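#struct-help
A.M.: can someone run this one for me? Single chain, 429 residues.
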Amino acid sequence: MNGSTVLRRRAGLLCLAVAPVLLLVATAVDPALGEGAWETHVGADPEGAVWHTVLLHWAYVLFVPGFLSLLGPIHARGRVLGAIAWVATLVGLVTFAGLVLTDVTAIAVAETVEPATFTAFEERVSTYTWMSAGWQLPGLVGWFVAFALTPVAAARAKVIGWWPAGAALAGFALYFLFAIEPVPLSLAGPAVLTAANIVIVAKAWGTVGGGAESTWKQKVGEACLVAAPVALAVGVATMPGTATRIDPFSTDPQLAQASAFFLHLSWLLFIPGMLAVVRRITGRGRVFAFVAGGIAVVGLLHWNGLMIGDYLALGVQQTLDPAQQAMVTTRTDGYAMFGLAVAIPGMAGALLGLILVPVAASRAGLVRWYVPVITGVGVVAFLMLTTGRVTGLVAPVLLLIGYGLVARALRSGQDQAPVAAAPVVVPAT
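D.P.: on it. Structure tokens below:
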């Protein structure tokens, strides 16, 4: 039995139990349920709308490690469905959690302008192709597939029983159908999902040591360690502006949209990369690696989603006058719940985690001491030198070098010791 695997998967199962509870609370406090225009409801109760958005975002963030833990022991029966659900979770559900955050700027706009201007703002944002193709389509499809296939794959693999899997599907179906209906109908889905997930966690708790992750998942994660800095470089290089200056998004809307997508893609790709590193640290330093990986993954789950704010900022610049733009910025900055629960932990967790995970790899003997130094300098360069297209490339280059060395070390170790292992059942405690 791999103690590191048990630690990670049980932490994920705890997230799976908490996530639907947050979904239930988020739905209960939503001021925009029932009849009437969305902007009218949230304009009357902006704080309640922000609480709803933050809780909903956190619910989907926690569903990600929850689903990954449930899918982890699947190696034979259900492996095809499990593979599809794994990709849908790490691409679609992660993206959908960020898509929820569009409401934060929209709430500030609804507080500030007249309904006609808000409609113009919404219509302008709806024309952004990069947002539709890069966020909405993969986010909505991935969200649906992850929730629909994960319990089915786990039941087929006998990780859980069919009736709790069916209950989870029923809960999701009720939420899908009635999420914006008045209370108590809107609460039916989250309530059923909460009960089902508690049973699922209790059943899966004793099977979390069912072997290591499949080899292909490890290889995908290693590839992402290289792909993520490359996407970051593209995101920086497409920022509106010059070699040393970043201009307002409205000066080049197409470049601004492309930049926001590739920045989001970069932080998203780092997530399976971080998991691949932590997964390989099973001996010395595994607890430190678990903590470092947790900080990185949770931070990145927030941080990649914050990139969607660039589209809303572009919409504000293109439809509101300067005075209204300033008011929207002031209102957005004043939402303390959003800042404390999403923005700050997102940036701090992601960037700190990108430093700590290579440190954990070095402590475990996977890489030499200079590798975390390179990645650490790369993170600092991102904070200090992302002032233009050329100066901003320093950070992606350093991160590509550092994480490329980490990926090479993981591949070398993989050749010597394959990841896949025989299933082992761990008695429930």
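A.M.: thanks! The longest helix spans residues 129-156.
D.P.: also worth noting: The mean pLDDT is 92.
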